[in-house]
């Protein structure tokens, strides 16, 4: 099911991820969400968690085993872009088993890569089911 949510040019990637994920979740019943344990990380929590990440390296590898719509990955890359350090590349691996969220996650990661390039950061992404 393709997301009809679009990124805006002034958007933070995490805001696009949050809207796209909310759109997918809104199409699922409470019973479906409960049965699959579907819970998306809120923007404020993802930003807080990203603020805890410390790296003096220019390259980073990040694994998210339950990526949802990618809010946490977006938050970490955004945080690294704004820290003023020498951060230049990120290799992201994201797992998501929900087929609708998986498709949304791919779109969100594509958006994140474009945003990162504008900030001179090379992001490579592998999205797995």
Shape: elongated
Q: Compute the gyration radius: what is it?
A: 14 Å
Number of helices: 5
Can you write the helix and strand succession as a string? HHHEHEHE
Sheet bearing the most strands, described?
3 strands, parallel
> How do the strands line up in the largest sheet?
1-2-3
How many domains, as an integer?
Answer: 1
Number of strands: 3
Low-confidence stretches: none
Cα separation of the termini: 15 Å
How confident is the prediction overall: mean pLDDT? 90
Portion of residues in beta strands equals: 15-25%
Tell me the structural class: alpha/beta
The residue fraction in helices comes out at 40-55%
Describe this protein's structure.
This protein has one domain (13-53, 64-128). The chain has 5 helices and 3 strands. It has helices spanning 13-26, 30-36, 43-51, 71-82, 99-118; strands spanning 59-64, 89-95, 122-128. It has a 3-stranded parallel sheet, covered by helices on one side.
